[in-house]
TrEMBL record:
Pfam families: Glyco_transf_9
PANTHER family the record matches: TETRAACYLDISACCHARIDE 4'-KINASE-RELATED (PTHR30160)
CDD domains: GT9_LPS_heptosyltransferase
Lineage: superkingdom: Bacteria
Protein's UniProt name: Glycosyltransferase family 9 protein
Organism: Pontiella agarivorans
Keyword Transmembrane helix attributed: no
Keywords: Glycosyltransferase, Transferase
Length: 345
């Protein structure tokens, strides 16, 4: 029998790609001997190295496609790697127009797709209308595979972080005077949109409280966050920025709790078996798919409050104390004085 060759597509972004992990593992369970490839944007391709079920990573530089001198070479390289006849199955978990076209181009006998618009069904042998209004997107992917004939068992959401990234994270801990063996709170204060950010001064208040009670605290962010995190460094807190995606995953794995907003980085915690606490602005994050999978208890939203920024520091501290139960319950905590950094939407 000819070996199955399966292509799974999800181009972006960090959280959305992480949400495909149980589906990828389910495909492997159904096709234990298959060659499984994953098509993803180049910027987050390293993420797939933690998907143990994937044999080959195919990346596309979408920025190069916009560059006149790089468009054709980039496109021809991609088309060669997904050329007709190479794959027996293509599973499009994205459902964009471009991924529908890619799926059709492969000419695979079995082409399954999560479809936003009915016209795109023409690209698939089995196109299913995307339904995440009442279920998490992980459950939708598994439902889609089940409808396409696969047997679905208990979801496996395990991310296998390569050991060298855990070692690099431990080295960063030591470099910043932190002990990987001690209770640690990691704070990821910024997201992709200002409307999803809880006030930095309130994160600073949380950090001050736990640091005063012997918990190691550090703030994490991208290189672009460096300037906005200056008030954190000025108050004597550890700041680690600009690290690669998988080194950041190592920092998460080395932490006891990760606190932050609705951002893909926090979903690493769930896949790495690290407790997370997500501050969730329900008004701007309506999709249930952004909630940590099967962990509604790992979310704080503004229910009962006038607005998301008014979620109290005390409420957040009390939720964090579930990870650090030896820390005493706080009295009323005042928000750190200062000016909130002006971050554009």
């Amino acid at each position: 029998m000819k070996k199955e060759r399966i292509l799974i597509i999800r181009l972006k972004s960090i959280g959305d790609v992480l949400h495909t992990l149980p589906a990828v593992n389910a495909v492997r369970q159904n096709y234990p001997d298959a060659q499984i490839s994953f098509l993803v944007c180049k910027s987050i391709a390293p993420l797939i190295s933690g998907f143990s079920a994937v044999d080959e990573i195919i990346s596309i530089d979408r920025n190069a496609l916009k560059h006149p001198g790089k468009t054709l070479p980039t496109l021809f390289s991609l088309l060669n790697r997904i050329r007709p006849g190479r794959f027996s199955h293509v599973i499009d978990l994205q459902g964009y127009g471009e991924t529908a076209w890619i799926t059709w181009f492969t000419g695979a006998p079995q082409r399954w797709g999560s479809v936003y618009r009915s016209m795109r069904k023409l690209a698939y042998t089995r196109g299913l209308d995307r339904d995440i209004s009442s279920m998490h997107v992980i459950d939708w992917y598994l439902s889609m595979l089940r409808q396409c004939g696969l047997q679905i068992n208990e979801p496996d959401n395990t991310f296998h972080l390569p050991e060298n990234y855990t070692e690099q994270a431990a080295g960063l801990f030591r470099e910043h005077g932190l002990d990987p063996e001690k209770p640690t709170l990691m704070i990821q204060p910024f997201t992709s949109r200002a409307s999803k950010n809880w006030p930095l001064l309130k994160y600073l208040s949380v950090a001050r409280f736990f640091k005063a009670h012997g918990i190691q605290v550090f703030f994490c962010g991208s290189a672009e966050d460096e300037i906005d995190l200056e008030p954190v460094r000025a108050r004597g807190h550890t700041v680690i920025t600009g690290k690669s995606l998988l080194v950041t995953a190592g920092l998460i794995k080395s932490s006891s709790l990760v606190l932050g907003g609705d951002t893909g980085i926090l979903h690493f915690g769930l896949a790495l078996d690290t407790r997370i606490l997500m501050l969730f602005n329900r008004k701007t994050s309506e999709k249930i798919s952004t909630i940590p999978y099967r962990h509604l208890d790992w979310v704080i939203d503004p229910a009962g409050f006038d607005s998301f920024p008014k979620i109290s520091v005390n409420r957040v501290v009390e939720e964090c104390r579930k990870t650090f139960p030896h820390v005493p319950s706080p009295k009323a905590i005042k928000t750190e004085p200062g000016t909130q950094p002006d971050r554009p939407n």
